[in-house]
Design goal:
With 208 residues, the protein is an all-alpha fold. The chain has helices spanning 3-20, 25-36, 40-61, 64-69, 72-98, 114-126, 129-143, 150-172, 183-207. Helices cover 77% and strands 0% of the residues.
Length: 208
């Protein structure tokens, strides 16, 4: 790989990282799973998040962004569904925060099944209209400014950023385990998650 291609990948990596390193619904959910130490489930969730980003970035580079932009009605449906889901999950997080006796760091299998966690991850990822704006339209449009061949190298860097970030967030969260041995820390985290989820959901409704 020559220096120019490496530079393209680094530019894509940096651009993608600035968009995904933020307190959002997906990141907040992954953070909680990481602190809980979910093992194989955590790996599955990380791969779902990263592969979803890779698919959406590739779709943007392939020109799907123009199709999405031409179908505002479909985007509105996603907004409504996403708002309902985010607000509902935010309420659940608030209920957890009100019941501190349920907030313990436990190495045993969690109450939520793998199926429920996977479905929640998919919903937080694919029912979020912002993910289409950020990955498909924004990153896709920037990539397409690089030229016919170079755009895919740029996109590869952007995809690598997603994989790097989600693995760092998921497994780095384990370092916070001593802190979350205290119920008060879980309460703060769940109130933060509740605020993020409800705020994002309300923002989607206002955006309509």
């Amino acid at each position: 790989m020559n220096a120019s291609l490496l530079q393209l990948m680094l530019l894509g990596f940096g651009a993608s990282l600035t968009l995904i390193v933020a307190i959002g619904a997906q990141n907040a959910y992954l953070l909680r799973l990481g602190v809980e130490g979910r093992g194989r489930i955590l790996v599955t969730v990380i791969l779902i998040c990263a592969l979803s980003d890779a698919i959406l970035i590739a779709a943007g580079v392939a020109g799907i962004g123009a199709v999405i932009e031409a179908a505002p009605a479909a985007t509105d449906v996603v907004r409504v569904l996403g708002a309902i889901f985010l607000i509902s999950y935010g309420v659940m997080a608030a209920r957890r925060a009100i019941r501190p006796q349920a907030m313990v760091v436990d190495e045993s299998p969690a109450d939520a099944s793998m199926k429920a966690i996977i479905l929640t991850t998919l919903a937080l990822t694919w029912l979020n209209p912002h993910v289409y704006l950020d990955t498909v339209m924004l990153l896709g449009s920037i990539a397409n400014q690089q030229g016919e061949t170079d755009r895919w190298w740029w996109a590869a860097g952007a995809m690598a950023a997603s994989f790097a970030w989600f693995f760092i967030l998921g497994y780095g969260a384990r370092l916070l385990k001593p802190l979350f041995a205290r119920p008060a820390a879980w309460r703060v985290l769940d109130w933060l998650i509740a605020f993020v989820m409800v705020s994002l959901g309300a923002g989607l409704i206002v955006g309509l």
